[in-house]
Amino acid sequence: MARWNKSVLNPEQQRSLKREVLYQVAAAAFRRNGYHGTSLVDIAETLGVSKATLYYYVKNKQDLLFQCHMAAADQALATICTDPSLNGLEQLRRSLAAYIVSIIGEGSFSVVILEERSLSDEQLRVVIEKRDIFERRLQDVVRTGVTDGSILRCDPKFAVFSALGAANWVTKWHRPEGAWTIDEIAEASASLLCRGLAAGPVPGCPSNRLYGGQP
Amino acid sequence: MARWNKSVLNPEQQRSLKREVLYQVAAAAFRRNGYHGTSLVDIAETLGVSKATLYYYVKNKQDLLFQCHMAAADQALATICTDPSLNGLEQLRRSLAAYIVSIIGEGSFSVVILEERSLSDEQLRVVIEKRDIFERRLQDVVRTGVTDGSILRCDPKFAVFSALGAANWVTKWHRPEGAWTIDEIAEASASLLCRGLAAGPVPGCPSNRLYGGQP
Amino acid sequence: MARWNKSVLNPEQQRSLKREVLYQVAAAAFRRNGYHGTSLVDIAETLGVSKATLYYYVKNKQDLLFQCHMAAADQALATICTDPSLNGLEQLRRSLAAYIVSIIGEGSFSVVILEERSLSDEQLRVVIEKRDIFERRLQDVVRTGVTDGSILRCDPKFAVFSALGAANWVTKWHRPEGAWTIDEIAEASASLLCRGLAAGPVPGCPSNRLYGGQP
Amino acid sequence: MARWNKSVLNPEQQRSLKREVLYQVAAAAFRRNGYHGTSLVDIAETLGVSKATLYYYVKNKQDLLFQCHMAAADQALATICTDPSLNGLEQLRRSLAAYIVSIIGEGSFSVVILEERSLSDEQLRVVIEKRDIFERRLQDVVRTGVTDGSILRCDPKFAVFSALGAANWVTKWHRPEGAWTIDEIAEASASLLCRGLAAGPVPGCPSNRLYGGQP
DNA sequence: AATGAATGAGGGTTCATTCAT
DNA sequence: TATGAATGAACCCTCATTCAT
To answer: Which residues in chain D have their CB less than 8 angstroms from residue C168's CB?
Structure first.
């Protein structure tokens, strides 16, 4: 399925297309076995090429991981919904659902579950920087919701951490053959998380006191 | 800090005490660098002993991981709150908070973040079996809450998956030097998650339609 | 001497040629120091390559031993003389002489002196099976001799065991720098052993009563 | 069976008795798995003691092997028959038979099959020196036979090498549970070998020309 | 006399990486 | 572009040996 043999495009595109497939295959392998648990042979075999060939498309194993991180960050950024016709809560919900789809769907570059210690300091800096942009945008969505009254008063940073955590974790237990479809999981998770952040007291819920409940 | 020299107990206890410390140190290393990314030298050095000494207490590196999993499962089981004087939602909240404390606090054996492919098939079976018990007990708490009306009607399995996911993820971003204390994180996370599951409609929350809101 | 650099053949042959040299060098090392007493570094150094390179040609150290056993069995099989113009005794003598040359001469794969416990059960089964063919063919030669009257009536199995034992033992004391040439040793040993099996009473020999000879 | 617990003697004898058992157990293990293939734990377990305890009775693993060699050489020396009422051939036959019994029977110290490279140079010197005495005495027996006309004219050194080779090899294929008893094997082997050395032409035997046949 | 605990040295094996073809 | 061959570094693990008890 992932062999990159037959696609016919101009050479420059060929190359970047192959690279993309490589990143996806690598990311999938990394997700399954961890960075150190994945050998380049694993990846090469999945692609139907030799181990040495990989070095035509990536500088390094470490660099390969880095590229996955970067691609994943871009992918994540694209899932944020800021449709002004919706309130913040709904924007958040849609963003989270789209994000979940993006990390467990086919073509995912996501490698968030991985030990970040595998990157060099410099690489880690760049990755975190890029991921911060994503997180800050999501925080903005939360702030929008707080302002328009759809989300309860809370620490946006913590809220986003929590939401993304639950979202990212899905990659651990999601099985393509499982009972739930990707969309179902995404919708259900996003809704669950948003309920936790929705404004207004929830009758009998102890967390009211923490988040301040009503404005 | 973790050197195991001075404790004076009878030899049998010494041994099992050392083993316990070993598991904790190993689990911490595994959490940080992944299973394959952790070398036995790392662990040995942290303990101030030689690499060969470890084999006095564990059969294998793989077995070491297995033992961490088992200890972690026990630790998790102990966090479940079933105090009958509390409603299900509150039981759940306390359980989650305690669970979070147990996995990021000192003395944690937690290795849930790890690539499960590192265990042998047989080991994995045993671990999953044991972990299932924990998850099923938590699901029971959710069911209790649904019955007593404190938790909205939902799929308990999915609810627990989500809650544990968000909880487990904390190990990824929690930094001991960070702004939040362990207890704060535990309380806030647990509350947030419980709000998402609390019965009763949340004004303006789109997830109401999913979980059915009030019965 | 044993470096495998310069030979110019097509790549497929190169590979199997190298493998052959590897087996010979390994067999020689095993013979000298035993299986467990031989390190892969020893072999690699003799070949002038790095230890890791060996794994390009063999799966395992154990597999290396196994391959030596197999090659040795083939080599042994090729030494059996069944020339119908000769009587059984002479066939046996020539076979034994050729066999001795094959195990102590250059290019020998022989590893019979080794602890067989070093092979896996399955490997041992295969090796023994193959070696049995060789031994049974030699036994056939003995039977031929008994039939044509050149060899005394005896248990062919035991006779072959004994003859091969004495032959194999030569690998223990033979020194290339020694006083005897390989051919001399082979001839002398074979003759000695054959005399022991030749038909007809040997005057004053106590073994007459054991093997009966013809009355 | 080999546990050394209950025997009641005076302490000095206890000690040397234990040592003797230790040598036998070690020799047996060495014979089976080779020197390097035998771990001290193997030996200790067979004796029912801890690994460290062995160091009360031997200086070294290497020294343990050395002691086996020495004991084996003594044992071998004791098998030589020089009964002047017998001719040389019969003396030789009895010697060989006794020797074979001594190396495969219970209580054997024999380690001749082993890689001699496992000894230190000095130890090897001593062992070879001692073994030379044995071989030279056997050669003397052969010479006696040649003189009294019972053994054909031959190189005594080579004759003894061959005979001992065949004898030693028995340790490789002898199985206690096998079809032949130890005595049968010893008798048959000795006879076979002696037939090969007996004076007088063997009808139709090609080796006549080698050994000069009748004087 | 005996042993549990600890260790240094060394061996087998894997793997990312390079290079000539 | 692609790959077979080769390697050094690192890792897991074993084992002979020592020492305090």
So the answer is: 165, 169, 172
Show the domain range for B47: 11-65
**What span, in angstroms and rounded, lies between the C-alpha atoms of B167 and B181?**
15
Residue B1 forms part of a structural domain: no
Q: Say how far apart CA D39 and CA D51 lie, in whole Å.
A: 10
- Domain annotation covers residue A5: no
Q: Is residue C43 part of a domain?
A: yes
Q: Encode pLDDT of A105-146 as tens digits.
A: 999 999 988 888 899 999 999 999 999 999 999 999 999 999
Beta-carbon separation of D89 and C169 below 8 A: no
Q: Which residues of A touch B195 (CB under 8 A)?
A: 195-198, 202, 205, 207-208, 211
Q: Give the CATH number of the domain where residue D101 resides.
A: 1.10.357.10
Q: Do residue A54 and residue A120 come from a single domain?
A: no
Which of D154, D160, D170, D138 shows the shortest CA–CA distance to D209? D154
> Do B175 and B126 lie in a common domain?
yes
| A178, part of any domain | yes
The pair of three-digit structure tokens given for residue B9, joined into one six-digit string: 């107990």
Q: Could B150 and A204 be called an inter-chain contact, meaning their C-beta atoms sit closer than 8 Å?
A: yes
Q: Do B197 and B184 reside in the same domain of the chain?
A: yes
Return the pLDDT at A115.
86
Q: What is the CATH number of the domain that holds C52?
A: 1.10.10.60
Quickly give D33 CA vs F19 C1' distance in Å: 30
Q: What is the pTM of this model?
A: 0.89
Give which of B145, A135, A19, A11 is closest to A2, Cα–Cα. Answer: A19
Contact B159/A at CB under 8 A: yes
Local confidence band at D31 (pLDDT 50, 70, 90 cut-offs)? very high
- Whether residue A144 lies within 8 A of chain B, CB to CB, comes out as no
Q: Which nucleotides of E are covered by protein (CB under 7 A)?
A: 1-20
Query: Which among D188, D203, D212 has a CA at the least distance from the CA of C150?
Result: D203
Is pLDDT of D62 > 70?
Answer: yes
**Domain shared by A18 and A98, yes or no:** no
Structure token digits, residue A118:
């595998």
Q: Tokens 């996501």 identify what position?
A: A110
**Tens of each residue's pLDDT in chain B, 215 residues:** 445 555 556 778 889 999 999 999 999 999 999 999 999 999 999 999 999 999 999 999 999 999 999 999 999 999 999 999 999 999 999 999 999 999 999 999 999 888 888 999 999 999 999 999 999 999 999 999 999 999 988 889 989 988 999 899 999 888 889 888 999 999 999 988 898 888 766 555 544 444 433 32
Residue A158 sits at the chain B interface (C-beta within 8 Å): yes
- The nearest alpha carbon in chain D to C91 belongs to D206
Nucleic strand F interface residues, CB < 7 Å:
A 15, 49-53, 55-56; B 38-41, 51-52, 55, 60-62; C 4, 11, 14-15, 18, 49-53, 55-56; D 38-41, 51-52, 55, 60-62
> What stretches of chain D adopt beta strand conformation (E)?
none
Helices then strands, counting H and E runs in chain B, come out as 9, 0
| Nearest nucleotide (C1') to alpha carbon of D52 | E3
What b/e sequence results for C110-143 when a residue is b if at least 16 CB atoms lie within 10 Å of its CB, and e otherwise? Answer: bbbbbbbebbeeebeeebeebbeebbeebbbbbe
B50 and B114 together in one domain: no
Q: How many domains are contained in chain B?
A: 2
Nearest-angstrom CA–CA distance, D54 and A160: 64
Same domain, A150 and A184: yes
What DSSP line would sit under B82-105, residue for residue?
A: --TTS-HHHHHHHHHHHHHHHHHS
Name D78's Cβ contacts closer than 8 Å, sequence gap at least 6: D102
Is any Cβ of chain A less than 8 angstroms from the Cβ of B215?
no
DSSP-assigned states of every residue in D146-183:
HHHTSB-S--HHHHHHHHHHHHHHHHHH--TTSSS-HH
- Nearest nt (C1') to B62 (CA)? F12
